[in-house]
Amino acid sequence: MTVTREELAAFADGELAGERAAQVAAAVAADPALADEVEAHRALRARLAEHYAPIAAGPVPDRLTAMLTQPQEAEVVDFAEAKERRAARRTIPRWGWIVGPALAASLALVLFLPGSGDDGAPYADPQLAAVLDSRLVAEQAPGADTRVLLSFRAQGGDVCRVFSGEGGGGIACRDQQGWRLEALGEGSAGGSTDYRMAGASDAALLARAQDMAQGPALDAAAEAEAKANGWR
Amino acid sequence: MLDLLPRLRRFAAGLAGNPADGDDLCQMSLERALANRAKWQEGTRLDSWMYRIMRNIWIDEGRAGSRRRQTFVAEEAGAGQGGEGAQEAAVELSYVDRAMQKLPDDQREAVLLVMVEGYAYKEAAEIVGCPVGTLNSRLVRGRDALMAMLGEAQ
């Protein structure tokens, strides 16, 4: 029986199984030259393991550990999404919308205002209501189907939220019955590649929200407090 | 991932030839892994995935510049002189480094994955992306070359 060098290495590494392992073991036992080779293979393995062991045993440089322990680094999913987040952080809390009036005028057609009559005002369906009830601006994923862009308190005192998603966007204000839809727009997909599209139709909603609001958008703490109070 | 770092540093130092370059390689690998973390499939082995990222970066880097390799040869020309007494241990260690650096990339990574990192042939072959038989023969060729070099050196 001949034993190839590959088989001999595999045998020395414990990679052979079953009958073949037994055959090679018998051949090694019968041939001192083969036994030497197995021994040399294992000795090299031990030497290499010993040689590199201090690196694994030594302290890990801080710069490497920090990459994994700093949360803002670890949260980044990919460059495009990170960029979108930065853009979102930049534009949304900045309430004074520089191009607001002009943009609102040009995009006014995107919006229609549902239920101007007292009886006909539509309300958010249960699915949307669930999102509006539960989601905080600061905590949502950038790629979520429906994103809440911001929350604000309207001049009448209601808490209102601007949302946007593939199924459409709008402004919903919380009253006794639920989330009353004050404005509806085309909305925008949540994917990062559609961000520029999102900017255009969301801008109309944001401009409309600006008209309705009695102050600046709620910051994260105020929004969390409003949520705790049932958005009233 | 934090638990993996010491092993990743070891593998990186083995590929790159020294701990300093190894840590640079490690940093690049972590950056790429973090940027692509969505691509890691839950339930698959994180360590294999990380090793694969690292060796891919190293292979790409190696193709980009063989400068590193040349620096090493220059260094080696000066070795072999001196190396008495207390220096002996350090010199012996660097024999291993130098011998490893002379191996072709594919043999070196096979030797590192199996003989240092302790991966089974099948796992190592998956990391490298080659058949198990190929991995086995690269390992044997790398091992034989190492033995010849280290045998001479002693």
Q: In which range does the helix fraction of chain B lie?
A: over 70%
What global shape of chain B is seen?
globular
- Counted by DSSP, the helix tally of chain A is 10
Structural domain tally of chain B: 2
Write down the oligomeric state: heterodimer
Q: Give the amount of beta strand of chain A, in percent.
A: 5-15%
Helix content of chain A: 40-55%
Model regions low in confidence, pLDDT < 50 over at least 5 residues of chain B: 69-86
What is the annotated CATH architecture of the largest domain in chain B?
Answer: Orthogonal Bundle
Decide which structural class fits the backbone of chain B.
mainly alpha
Distance between the termini of chain A: 86 Å
- Low-pLDDT runs of chain A: 72-77, 89-113, 189-198
Radius of gyration of chain A: 32 Å
What structural class do helix, strand and pairing data of chain A support? alpha+beta
Task: Describe the sheet with the most strands of chain A.
Answer: 4 strands, antiparallel
Give me the strand/helix succession of chain A.
HHHHHHHHEEEEHH
Please give a structural write-up.
- The complex is a heterodimer of chains A (232) and B (154).
- Chain A folds into two domains: 53 residues, no CATH class; 147 residues, no CATH class.
- Helices cover 50% and strands 12% of the residues of chain A.
- Chain A contains ten helices and four strands.
- Chain A has a four-stranded antiparallel sheet, sandwiched between helices.
- In chain A, helix 1 crosses helix 3 and helix 7 crosses helix 9.
- Chain A is elongated, with a radius of gyration of 32 Å.
- About 18% of the residues of chain A have low confidence.
- Chain B has 154 residues and is mainly α.
- Chain B folds into two domains: 65 residues, RNA polymerase sigma factor, region 2, helix turn helix motif (Rna Polymerase Sigma Factor, Chain: A); 67 residues, Winged helix-like DNA-binding domain superfamily/Winged helix DNA-binding domain (Arc Repressor Mutant, subunit A).
- Chain B contains eight helices and no strands.
- The interface between A and B is large, with 34 and 42 residues.
